[in-house]
Amino acid sequence: MVQSRDAERTRSDLLEIATEIFSEQGYSGARVDEIAERTRTTKRMIYYYFGGKEGLYLAVLEAAYRRIRETEQGLHADHLSPVDAVRRIAELTFDHHHDHPAFIRLVSVENIHHGQHLGKVESLRDLGTPAASLLDEVLARGRASGELRDDVDAVDVHMMISSYCVFQVANSATFGFLFGRDMLAPDVRERHRRILGDIVVGWLTAH
Amino acid sequence: MVQSRDAERTRSDLLEIATEIFSEQGYSGARVDEIAERTRTTKRMIYYYFGGKEGLYLAVLEAAYRRIRETEQGLHADHLSPVDAVRRIAELTFDHHHDHPAFIRLVSVENIHHGQHLGKVESLRDLGTPAASLLDEVLARGRASGELRDDVDAVDVHMMISSYCVFQVANSATFGFLFGRDMLAPDVRERHRRILGDIVVGWLTAH
DNA sequence: TCGCTAATGTACGAAACGGTACATACATTG
DNA sequence: CAATGTATGTACCGTTTCGTACATTAGCGA
Question: Distance (Å) from the C-alpha of residue A79 to the closest C-alpha of chain B?
């Protein structure tokens, strides 16, 4: 073996491949042997670093959520008017979902399992708050200036935006099949992006 | 064995339990033995009637989609104004999703597997058209009367409504965990239902 | 009522699968 | 440069899991 030892590299290699396979095949559908085969190391290392299949899955989940949190924290809307800010938030959320399908699929997988693993990862508690408070702040500004309606809740707005974005990525297979429409095609994506912005702005500016 | 033979009953018993288990555990997570154990018959019958695990899953999928089609076909909106009609469609879709979580979860499961099974069921081709054409008709009426905007596509409207409804059921576990909110609680459900109607009507009546 | 077929039950097999025991090589440190 | 613990590879084990061979029973038509 020419390959020199590199614990961190082995760990991240395992995590990367595992993320791909768990998101593609689901938790139960993923095979430990297949994950190992596609890395430059062996199955033994999964047990060495993560304890087992579930431990690896938890690590994948945590890493994926951590990445999304970083993206959210890099999102600033202070310099925009409330109306522009909500549109920007909606559009960036939209882009983020389309650009990270593996993460969205992982969330679906976790929901199939009733979120039973998510609850085991302490570090993910209250992970939603940044997104909600950013929206909350923008809504408060809009409420004060009279540009946005005053009877909506930040979490409800976030949920509406998320649902629209998640659906496109998570349900593209069945929806595409039933309606003969590829939701991931560039032109369709562009139209949906604009529509989402219009809907959100229209909703929040109505009085 | 007092139980008399009843092929149809055995078949439907298997289908019912399989629907529950596949929707709860996913395709790979479901166990043939567990399904069999929870029916009044044996595993042997799964192979006798459905050929195997995949055949059973396909039958479950087909039955579930058939049921939803029947519901959709029973939805009439001719007697309502275009605006009332879209709100009614949105609200009934919302109710239908909340009332049939097993079906929604099955769709998620199928998407995890990239819709690979759905494509094998010939009878499900163009299953989406009824829903789209109902909306199309209402949109046409609204366009003619000037009550609804004329630059929206029925499938896009359907997608927006579906995404909102699907999310609440399919992602309640992770969303509930991250935001500490139970989307299936009666009062929350009632608010979300109203919000959806408001959003859709607001969107389609804007000019 | 007799026989034939649809329907059902039992027991078992082969492969897949998650996991582990054991040996070993590398690298760091004293 | 010896010693020690980290990191890695190989081979294997026990169980689970899908599937099937074989036997049997119930009911229907002749």
Answer: 27
* Spatial contact of A104 and A97, defined as CB atoms under 8 Å apart: yes
Min Cα–Cα distance to chain B from A62, Å:
13
Strand (E) or helix (H) holding B163: helix B154-170
Confidence of residue B2 (pLDDT cuts 50, 70, 90): very low
Interface contact A178-B119, CB threshold 8 A: no
CA distance A17 to A41: 11
Residue A3 has pLDDT above 70, yes or no: no
Q: Which two tokens stand for residue A34?
A: 């297949």
Question: Is there contact between B48 and strand C, defined as CB under 7 Å from any strand atom?
Answer: yes
Asked if the model's pLDDT at residue A44 lies above 60, the reply is yes
Dist. CA A107–CA A117, nearest whole Å: 11
Nearest alpha-carbon partner for B83 in B195, B201, B190: B201
Tell me: the pLDDT tens digits for A123-139? Answer: 898 888 889 999 999 99
> What's the CA gap between A191 and A89, in Å, rounded?
17
Q: Which of A23, A90, A97, A19 is nearest to A59 (CA)?
A: A19
Which stretches of A100-153 are DSSP H helices?
Answer: 101-112, 129-145
**A107 Cβ neighbours under 8 A, 6+ residues apart:** A166, A170, B171, B174
A105, A170 contact by CB (below 8 A): yes
Answer yes or no: is A5 CB < 7 A from strand D.
yes
- Give the residue from B31, B61, B165, B167 with the most A CB atoms within 10 Å of its CB, the best one to mutate: B167
